[in-house]
Design a protein that fits this description.
The protein is α/β, with parallel strands linked by helices and 278 residues long. The chain has ten helices and ten strands. The protein is globular and about 40 Å long. α3 links the parallel β5 (93-96) and β6. It has helices spanning 38-50, 72-86, 100-107, 126-131, 158-175, 195-203, 205-212, 224-230, 239-251, 262-277; strands at 3-6, 9-12, 17-23, 55-59, 93-96, 114-117, 136-140, 183-186, 217-219, 256-259. Bound molecules: 6-hydroxymethylpterin-diphosphate. 6-hydroxymethylpterin-diphosphate binds at residues 21, 23, 25, 28-30, 59, 62-64, 96, 116, 118, 138, 140, 186, 188-189, 217, 219, 258. InterPro entries: DHP_synth-like (IPR045031), DHP_synth_dom (IPR006390), Dihydropteroate_synth-like_sf (IPR011005), Pterin-binding_dom (IPR000489). It holds the Pfam family Pterin_bind. GO terms for molecular function: dihydropteroate synthase activity.
Length: 278
Amino acid sequence: MKTLLCGRFTLDLSRPLVMGILNVTPDSFSDGGRFNRLEDALRRAEAMLAEGADILDIGGESTRPGAPFVSPQEEMSRVLPALEKLRDLGAPLSLDTRRAEVMREALALDAVDLINDVSALEDEGALQVAAQSQAAICLMHKQGNPDTMQDKPAYGDVVAEVAEYLKRRAQLCLDAGIARERLLVDPGFGFGKTLEHNLALLKRLDEVERIAGAPLLVGLSRKSMLGAITGEAEPAERLGASVAAALEAAWRGAAVIRVHDVKATRQALQLWQALRES
Ligand SMILES: Nc1nc2ncc(COP(=O)(O)OP(=O)(O)O)nc2c(=O)[nH]1
């Protein structure tokens, strides 16, 4: 059985897991500002768990294209209280950060079971912090940084390049003594990719896992690639495409699917799983 060693938990990856997004930011691209009050965040967390979320992903810095700079102090002032508040809910908590010092401070709270790093532990000291923890680690690919990444994304073979990058980052983790069973990789949909790049990555998602050598986490929920295809400008109105994208990812082997809409995604995946098991 494929499992993920995830801090305080060991997760069964025999079915796709749903990661509920909890952005404690005032400006996240689709739900910014609603949950940056601690009580709201706790209510949202409890609601997502009740809807069937397997993991909660707490983020204090929006990484949408063009997102403004958030200082480490500001990011910590957002995520650390939330992590403390959610620590004893009995669910794995993922911290969405690319900063080593935020990881270090959060891990000290014994409330981080998964480090979700959109920059694949590239920050100075991040690999060491992760290696000294028991947390699972999601290594995500991005080209450039949020302020410029969508200007002119360019690749030869986007799938091969993304997969090879993730393989290199995973090997660094293994060399640092991190068990392979703690690793997830993520192609980073929308992070320095055109629509064509995103579609190629989704269509060939199984190649990414095979080359990188670790289970996949994917984030497609409400993203602008879905807006481009549907013509829907409002991210929160992209539920149908988001659920369809989750199913497409599940068919291609995604182990963890990062979403805003937990209940709808969970229901779709329950049907998908029932058909596979029948
Ligand atoms: N592993 C992973 N982490 C991510 N974190 C943030 C976003 C951006 O989505 P969201 O958090 O909804 O928006 P924002 O960054 O504005 O908070 N996407 C991913 C993703 O695709 N994969």
